[in-house]
Write a structure and sequence with these properties.
The protein is α/β, with parallel strands linked by helices and 97 residues long. It is 40% helix and 12% strand.
């Protein structure tokens, strides 16, 4: 699941490689997770894997955390956003994502 985001294309589906461009500050990948716990775990895993390819900002967004903190982090730039559906929809409605 993370291979196409971080480095490689998928030859079986004939998808070209589209790695995260760490020079650009905008969001380039969105990962949906069903629960807050999984959101945090996936964000940590992507952060760990991405250490080997350069600076990649990963931001988890989920309910139960102040949305203003998340808005600040997203405005500062996040290459990959991992979130729960409800909070992702919240950010889309607010146009912060």
């Amino acid at each position: 699941m993370l291979r196409p985001i971080l480095r490689y294309g998928d030859e079986a589906l004939h998808l070209p490689a589209q790695p995260v461009d760490s020079i650009r500050a905008d969001t380039q990948a969105l990962v949906l997770t069903p629960t807050r716990e999984l959101c945090i775990q996936v964000a940590e895993a992507i952060h760990t894997y991405a250490k080997h390819i350069g600076v990649v900002r990963v931001r988890p967004v989920y309910g139960g955390q102040p949305i203003q903190t998340q808005v600040r982090h997203l405005r500062a730039g996040a290459h990959v956003v991992v979130g729960t559906p409800g909070r992702i929809l919240d950010h889309l409605r607010r146009r912060t994502l």
